[in-house]
Amino acid sequence: MSARPLHSRPWWVAVVSGMASYIDSAAITGFSTSIVILQQDLGLTQWQVGVAAGALTLSIAFGALIGGRLGDRLGRRPVFTATMVLILTAVGALVVAPSFEMVVLGAVLLGLGTGADLPVSLSTIAEAATERNRGRLLGFSNLLWIIGIVVNTVLASVVGDWGRAGAQVLFAHIGVVAALVLVGRLTIPESAAWQAARTRKRAGTSGERADRARISDLLRPPFLVPFLALVAFYAFTNLVANTSGQFGTYIVVTYGGATVGQAALIALPMVPVAVLGYLWFMKIADGPRRFVYFQVGAVLMIASKLLVVVAGLNLVTYAVSALLAAVGGAFAFEGIMKVWTQESFPTLLRSTAQGAIIAIGRFSAAGLAVITPLILDTSVTVMYVLLTVFNVVGLGCAWLAFRRRRPAPIPDEDPGRSETVTAWESR
């Protein structure tokens, strides 16, 4: 199939494929609420709750690794279709789960499905776009991620006190969205860029950047530098973001003298701030000033945690820290990571690289989460020093790697141009 139909309706592809981010955030937030309900309904112990939550997190990471590689080997379309079927199966198991074992099975299947879907869907969006709108379309997936959280939070506020029926509604919401996405994805043909690269590889064409397909190629020039830089960038900045998201309320209530209600009042306005930031990122993502915005965002992200180190933790510093992080993250976190990843690797390695970067970030966050309460109990300042260092290292790696580079276009965009083994060109 030709990619021309995809290029003629890029926003349809961006919405249907980008719903991977919506389902990812809805699955994480929905499961965290539902497991509390299931704990009471099924009589789960604290240990079992932790195992179930950990199973979801680790399965998302493994899913990203597996799905990314399968997307490059088998094609985008079969993988991002199969993931929706896997998610529907997981939802069915969770809706009827009669026991702890079934809950864990559902969590594993849900994690594998959502994790595997993310890198393949992002590659589909990138290959349906052009150099003029790729950043905007990839940035749209971040907006869908936020919308998934908002919708699920509103839904949880309505059904949270319904007991087991409330948990079933939350899981059913994910299932209904997955079913609609599956129908929508049946209208999307295979990526022509992937088909062309696969054909050249099978024909024995060599020396073209677009046909690099071995995992080991990620650890060789010219892909080694962008791959390691993006791994470090996302892993370290995600440590900060995940800690803030998972432990933010706990930190400000336990160590900052705030109440749970006050913490919620701080978090609430951050949602529209983040949405406005993502919309602005979509506006500038394909323009010449993208890297300038990244640098400004990086400074704000570093300052957000450094502020607490210097001024101490209280309600005001926590609120200002959250605001700085929300604005800075729109331009110097996951959105720009997705764009750089899709632009930096050849077609048959694009999904593999994205999956590996996401997986390493998720594994790292899960590991830090285990010891975060211990670090906080020792010293809040030490925790925020670590978070500041993580931001400096991650953002510094991205700055060093991308400050003077621009990627070559995806081959399907410019058939008259032959890609060489030079991954980037000077700006």
Number of DSSP-assigned strands? 2
Number of helices: 16
Estimated helix fraction: over 70%
Radius of gyration: 21 Å
As for the CATH topology of the largest domain, it is Growth Hormone, Chain: A
Number of separate structural domains: 2
Low-confidence parts: 412-427
The succession of helices and strands, N to C, reads: HHHHHHHHHHHHHHHHEE
Strand coverage percent: under 5%
CATH classification class of the largest domain: Mainly Alpha
Structure description:
By secondary structure, the protein is mainly alpha-helical. It folds into 2 domains: 187 residues, Up-down Bundle (Growth Hormone, Chain: A), CATH 1.20.1250; 218 residues, Growth Hormone, Chain: A (Up-down Bundle), CATH 1.20.1250. The protein has 16 helices and 2 strands. Strands 1-2 form a two-stranded antiparallel ribbon. The two termini are 34 Å apart.
